[in-house]
Design goal:
Elements (H helix, E strand, L loop, with lengths): L3 E4 L2 E9 L3 H12 L4 E4 L8 H4 L20 H6 L9 H14 L6 E2 L4 E7 L4 E6 L4 E9 L21 E4 L13 E5 L3 H11 L4 E6 L5 E3 L9 H7 L1 H9 L19 H14 L15 H18 L3 H7 L12 E3 L2 H4 L5 E5 L5 E5 L2 E4 L4 E3 L2 E4 L8 H4 L2 E3 L6 H8 L15 E3 L12 H21 L5 E3 L1 H16 L30 H14 L5 E3 L1
Helix pairs in contact: 1-14, 14-16
This protein binds flavin-adenine dinucleotide and NADP nicotinamide-adenine-dinucleotide phosphate (NAP).
The site of NADP nicotinamide-adenine-dinucleotide phosphate (NAP) has 26 residues, from helix 5.
Length: 541
């Protein structure tokens, strides 16, 4: 079915997809193939989502390239040649542009088009979405492929407007920015900071790193793919993808089945060392109980702290770089190249603002509470995201009886049945966001799992002439409680991590654990159970 233009400013559709990152592109492809009148809108002038917006120096994925890619087209996975073990931002963006061209997706995407509001009409069972440029889209289904990490956190630095130099955000980094010879200050030492800091240190004259909470940073150990390696992977691709789908993290990892505290000290240290040398997130697979047993977690934390002492020349700097207030893994593990080594460079200075907070920015830099001043000409903000809910609460979404999603979620946090739909907002489905494994898994696997389930649901409804689906309120409360309970059975919520996993990085945000920590396998079973039982957990009408 083709999209119909009601008048020049209104488009009638079966499905409106919001976002053209990994999730939006696959939704568009799959639903168009299934015969729905579907169109996507995207704020950016290009496809790519995360990988369009985050172009800062050093940006890279920490899932292996051959796994951080679509599995739904054998030809596609055979023809695309990844260059490195872990793909750089530019390579992922090139891949997604290729997907858009190869499957002719661009003709059904309106770029530079931002949905600002959407209203549900219970009579016609349709959403009307309005965009920043005054257009309207009327669609039965509103599919939110808006991303978990697509809205940067509001700037909350004291007196930042007083700063007279250049201010850059890592999100929306201007292409072609040249900071050679400049004095730069980076605020933020999360995953983004840990990538941009070593990259900038090589380029700039002087780098001031403002750290509030240190992170455990695991070495990436990226490298070019070896001769024959890609061919061997491609020969086994279908089975490899199946292994990925059957691992809770959505990517196969040779996890050690042993518990850390059941082996002796020598074996424990040798295992940590082997994983450290291997690099990447596999470090967390060193033992089975790392996220469940405080003593096991303490052991891996001690190991990383000892590594910091080993790598960093200045003992005072090493001390400041050591996290002490939360379990390793409670914040999203940070994977980066030469992070700790960067603090041995003569042009890099670490400023700890936990004990001595920023009092105010000044025209030429910043001043700390004790009066210490730091001067620079460029300020780089790697301060994170209004994760999960940010992209939703930015829009004025009004559901059944005028219920405003912004009001409900700002008060109670994102409440969903199976991470797919929220009571009061019929036919609005979310892809790989709050309430589903999303960021706790290889997100491409999580996205494919969701898109396939949604496509089957839409087909089920079409065949039976059903007009709406909505989260069942009781099922929703049960699911939200279950998500919290699963998180509480791990060390994820422990300590003073200030983690965006539970909204703790944004002032005033309700704190609930947002991603589902049970992994894609358990989650897949819940999805299958629902579908096999006429979409239990949802009300179809
Ligand atoms: P996104 O890629 O965020 O795309 C959402 C799109 O929706 C955006 O382009 C946005 O402009 C658009 N949009 C939002 N609201 C509107 C609106 N109202 N109107 C119109 N358009 C709108 N995940 C991993 O699994 N492994 C990694 O190593 C990894 N690294 C990451 C590195 C960075 C720097 C960041 C920020 C995230 C990383 N992630 C990683 C998570 C990453 O976001 C996901 O892997 C994946 O790219 C998400 O795809 P998506 O399509 O769901 O969302
Ligand atoms: P983040 O993890 O939230 O880190 C933000 C950093 O900014 C933290 O160090 C935080 O300190 C600091 N900060 C925020 N506000 C501050 C303030 N007012 N004063 C001082 N410091 C402040 O955000 P991120 O680094 O952008 O990463 C977000 C997520 O994106 C990651 O967890 C990951 O999922 C994804 N990502 C992945 C990769 C990758 O390698 N694959 C790379 C980049 C991003 P506090 O901790 O004290 O709040």
């Amino acid at each position: 079915m083709a999209a119909a233009a009601v008048d020049s400013a209104t488009t009638e559709l079966d499905v409106l997809v919001v976002g053209a990152g990994f999730a939006g592109l696959y939704l568009l492809h799959r639903l168009r193939k299934d015969g729905f009148a579907v169109r996507a809108v995207e704020s950016a002038p290009e496809v790519g989502g995360t990988w369009y917006w985050n172009r800062y120096p050093g940006a890279r994925c920490d899932v292996e390239s051959v796994d951080y890619s679509y599995s739904w087209d054998e030809q596609l996975q055979q023809e695309w040649d990844w260059k490195e073990k872990y793909p750089a931002q530019g390579d992922i963006l090139a891949y997604l542009k290729h997907v858009a061209d190869r499957f002719d997706l661009r003709k059904d995407i309106d770029f530079e088009t931002t949905v600002t509001a959407a209203t549900w009409d219970g009579q016609s069972c349709r959403w009307t979405a309005r965009t920043s440029d005054g257009r309207e889209y009327v669609a039965q289904f509103l599919l939110m492929a808006v991303g978990c990490l697509s809205v940067p956190k509001e700037i909350d630095l004291p007196g930042v407007d007083a700063f007279g130099g250049q201010v850059l955000r890592t999100w929306g980094w201007p292409e072609g920015t040249d900071l050679a010879g400049r004095r730069v200050c980076v605020v933020g030492t999360g995953s983004t900071g840990a990538q941009v800091i070593p990259a900038l240190a090589e380029e700039v004259e002087h780098l001031t790193v403002v750290q509030r909470t240190p992170n455990f940073v695991i070495p990436t150990r990226n490298r070019p793919l070896r001769e024959g390696e890609l061919e061997a992977i491609k020969a086994d691709y279908v089975a490899r993808r199946e292994r990925n789908r059957n691992h809770p993290a959505g990517v196969f990892r040779a996890d050690n089945p042993k518990n850390a505290m059941e082996v002796d000290e020598a074996e424990r240290q040798a295992t940590f060392q082997e994983r450290w040398e291997g690099g990447g997130i596999n470090f967390l697979g060193a033992f089975a109980d790392l996220m469940f047993d405080q003593a096991a977690n303490d052991a891996i934390c001690d190991f990383v702290r000892a590594k910091i002492d080993e790598i960093v020349d200045d003992p005072k700097v090493a001390e400041l770089l050591k996290p002490n207030s939360y379990p390793l893994g409670a914040k999203r593990p940070v994977v980066a190249t030469d992070y700790y080594e960067t603090f041995n460079r003569p042009n890099v200075e670490l400023v700890d603002v936990r004990q001595n907070p920023i009092e105010s920015f000044t025209p030429a830099g910043l001043r700390l509470a004790d009066g210490e001043q730091h001067e620079f000409d460029t300020l780089v903000l790697a301060t994170g995201f209004d994760a999960f809910t940010g992209a939703f609460t930015k829009m004025d979404i009004r559901g059944r009886d005028g219920l405003r999603l912004r009001d409900v979620w700002r008060e109670h946090g994102p409440r969903t049945s199976l991470g797919l739909a929220s009571a009061g907002f019929p036919n609005m489905l979310m892809v790989a966001n709050a309430g589903s494994p999303s960021v706790l898994a290889n997100m491409v696997t999580a996205i494919e799992q969701h898109v396939d389930w949604i496509a089957e649901l839409l087909d089920y409804m079409r065949v039976r002439n059903l007009r709406s689906i909505e989260a069942d309120e009781q099922a929703q409360e049960k699911w939200v409680a279950h998500v919290e309970e699963v998180a509480n059975s791990t060390l994820w919520p422990n300590g003073d991590s200030g983690s965006w996993y539970r909204g703790a990085n944004v002032d005033g945000k309700p704190q609930i654990f947002m991603p589902y920590a049970g992994g894609v396998v358990e989650y897949g079973k819940a999805l299958e159970h629902s579908a096999a039982n006429d979409y239990e957990g949802f009300v179809l009408a």
